[in-house]
Design goal:
Elements (H helix, E strand, L loop, with lengths): L6 H33 L8 H26 L3 H22 L10 H38 L17 H78 L6 H28 L7 E4 H13 L9 E6 L3 E4 L1 H18 L6 E8 L2 E8 L6 H5 L16 H12 L2 E6 L5 E8 L10 E2 L1
Helix pairs in contact: 1-2, 2-3, 3-4, 4-5, 5-6, 6-10, 7-8, 8-10
């Protein structure tokens, strides 16, 4: 974990830190009670070992107050966690010193710091706790052996190992135990973190699905209400087309009404497709012929006059899929590419065939898609344009998922976009015929 945390990570980190700080105080209190009443029970509070125990715990309590104050500020939390681990290991080293040195049972307290480091900071925190605790414990053992530090004067001398032959076994054993605790704690903390992350994602998806279901019901109702008057409008437009006496301005207005009515009809169709998905009726179909038909239709409607649409690929490629749904996929992708393109820039629909299966590509030279937008591009009701509802690509994704096909997009801002639909080999019905363009 880096020293700079995001706002959401800060909140989660602060909660864990607060809980571990409270647990730390509880452990320190228990250690103080056990050390003074059991191990040092026969000594007064003024004894050397008792004073060290009391001073150590008092310093730990004082540092906890400082930690709490910094925690309230919400800044430098990772650095604070590192400082707390080092401070805790110093406290454990003092307790180890007054309770038997290398052979003290209090060496297990180093493992608590390793566990806390794993919970707060993952493997990096656990390794820091292991390194600092191991170095402090080894340094204490070496200082006792070399006579740099003498055993507490109020402790029985026979409790303390002062030769390397006596120190080696507990030193190696305790360092090994600390390493095992570190690895296990890091593994478990990482698994819990991954599980928690997946749970958050699953919860968010469930909430999104619930919202989309409500929006879908609303969209279906609106679509039905819109479609009836829309049909009357389209029929009236067709009747006006053959009327006598229409001037050039009238025909221009007629063309605008027709295009907007077509766009509205497409939107209604997308809303119904999204709100009431159906199971694909798979049968052999010609993907190349469907793509060519869509290209021809796109050139005769909407912006087909100023955005040329071209097909490149085989004259025939058989696949097993739902004819109507795949036609909807190609139409939505082509329509999306046209809307993203400026006048005169082409949209190219390409079909290729390889050992892994078929590939349908729809490429444009439009404004492109940012990296942030690509992450949500296939979400319902997400759009990067000022007009539109962001339904078409969501319908595409749902249909392709139902077929077991994969779609991805390659794009950069200002450099256009290429949507690729990958069709597995198992869904191909025949080898492609010669290419056409």
């Amino acid at each position: 974990m880096q020293l700079g945390l995001s706002a959401s990570a800060d909140r989660s980190f602060a909660v864990r830190f607060a809980w571990l700080t409270g647990l730390r105080l509880l452990v320190l209190t228990i250690v103080l009670v056990v050390t003074t009443t059991i191990h040092l029970g026969g000594m007064g509070a003024k004894a050397y070992s008792s004073r060290i125990a009391l001073l150590t715990v008092a310093a730990a309590y004082a540092l906890t107050g400082i930690y709490a104050a910094i925690l309230r500020l919400g800044r430098g939390l990772s650095a604070l966690a590192y400082a707390q681990m080092i401070g805790d290991n110093l406290a454990w080293s003092a307790i180890v010193y007054i309770t038997g040195g290398p052979a003290s049972g209090a060496t297990s307290l180093y493992g608590l710091t390793c566990l806390a480091g794993a919970i707060l900071l993952g493997l990096r925190g656990a390794l820091l706790a292991l390194l600092t605790g191991g170095v402090m414990y080894a340094a204490l053992c070496a200082a006792l052996v070399q006579g740099i530090i003498l055993p507490p004067p109020d402790q029985p001398i026979e409790l303390y190992a002062t030769r390397w032959s006596e120190v080696a076994f507990p030193l190696v054993l305790n360092l090994l135990a600390m390493s095992v605790v570190t690895l296990l704690a890091s593994y478990l903390a990482e698994r819990l973190r991954e599980t928690g992350g997946r749970l958050v994602v699953a919860t968010a998806r469930a909430e999104q699905a619930e919202r989309l279901a409500a929006l879908g019901r609303l969209a279906a109702g609106l679509a039905h209400e819109i479609r009836n008057p829309l049909g009357s409008i389209v029929a009236s437009i067709e009747l006006l087309r053959g009327a006598d006496g229409l001037g050039s301005d009238d025909r221009a207005l007629w063309g605008i009404i027709e295009r907007e009515a077509t766009r509205l009809n497409d939107l209604v169709g997308d809303m119904l497709d999204l709100s009431r998905p159906r199971v694909p009726l798979k049968e052999p179909m010609d993907l190349a012929m469907t793509a060519r038909d869509v290209v021809t239709l796109a050139g005769q409607s909407g912006r087909g006059a100023d955005v040329p649409v071209r097909y490149e690929g085989p004259s025939r490629l058989g696949i097993v899929a739902d004819v109507a749904q795949i036609r909807q996929v190609v139409w939505n992708l082509v329509r999306n590419a046209i809307q993203a393109s400026s006048a005169g820039t082409p949209v190219i629909v390409t079909i290729t065939h390889g050992e892994d299966g078929g590939l349908l590509e729809v490429a444009d030279l439009g404004v492109g898609i940012s990296a942030e937008a690509r992450e949500r591009l296939f979400d319902a009701f997400f759009t990067t344009r000022s007009s539109g509802m962001g339904i078409g690509l969501a319908v595409v994704k749902r249909i392709l998922d139902d077929h077991g096909f994969v779609i991805d997009v390659e794009s950069a801002e200002g450099k256009g976009a290429t949507f690729r639909v990958r069709i597995p080999k198992a869904s191909l019905a025949n080898e492609p015929d010669a290419d056409v363009s």
